[in-house]
Amino acid sequence: MMNNRAVNRVLIKSLCILFLFIVGAVLLQASQYQIISMLLVIAACFPIYYRYERKQINIKELVLIAVLTAVAVLGRFLFYMIPAITPMTAIIIISGICLGAEVGFLVGSLSAVTSNILFGQGPWTPFQMFSWGMIGLVAGLPWLQKRLKKSYWFLALYGILAGFFFSFFMDLWTVFSIDRSFSWQRYLALLLSAVPYTMSYCFSNAFFSCFLFRTIQTKLQRILVKYDIK
Fold first, then answer.
1. Would the pTM of this model clear 0.85, i.e. be above it?
2. How does pLDDT run across 182-227, given as a tens digit for each residue?
């Protein structure tokens, strides 16, 4: 697992890259917004994957991450017929809370790219990887992790905020994908038109996070002890 300093470093790097993406798109008036945005979001994901590959890999931990990713993908698949209702984000949040920021990011980003094998890959995939990855990472930050474990109110609130973050960030991609330029009017129009979807998604996150947390936490604790996963 990553220590506090390492997590903060990765978080700062990711946010700096995201800031550069926004500045480049809004101020520099570059012509290839889709290519630039994809490269920058991939670059934002890179530090955590790089650090994870450099450490001594525990095969048991990799299997656990793969299983959690599969469960998250299954959750998205089972509820795909109900718009904005899915336990996938909740599973990503719980993974971050129980196993730390690094695992939370990996489960989130891997769930995005894996589930899109079923739902369709495209230029939006790196944005989803970054969004769900950051939701898992922040949930695993030590100062927040303790509060989320102790209080269902904090857990529900984080699920709601995660829903807003995902919707707002993905709407940025939608604006750029229309004509490769950014418009505040179009962005606000998209946010307003997506209010029912966003609200459903937020409260879905809150419900599934609270409903599944203790069960998944208990199972993960038993696995960590039984297989001696640090």
1. no
2. 678 888 888 888 888 899 999 999 999 999 999 999 999 998 888 7
Q: Which CATH number describes the domain made up of 4-226? A: 1.10.1760.20
- 97-100: long-range pairs with CB below 8 Å, 24+: 97/139, 97/140, 97/145, 97/148, 97/149, 97/213, 97/217, 98/216, 98/217, 98/220, 98/221, 99/1, 99/64, 99/68, 99/140, 99/220, 100/1, 100/2, 100/140, 100/145
Considering 72-76, 109-113, 175-179, the range whose residues carry the highest mean pLDDT is: 72-76
CA distance 8 to 17: 14
Which sequence spans correspond to the domains of the chain? 4-226
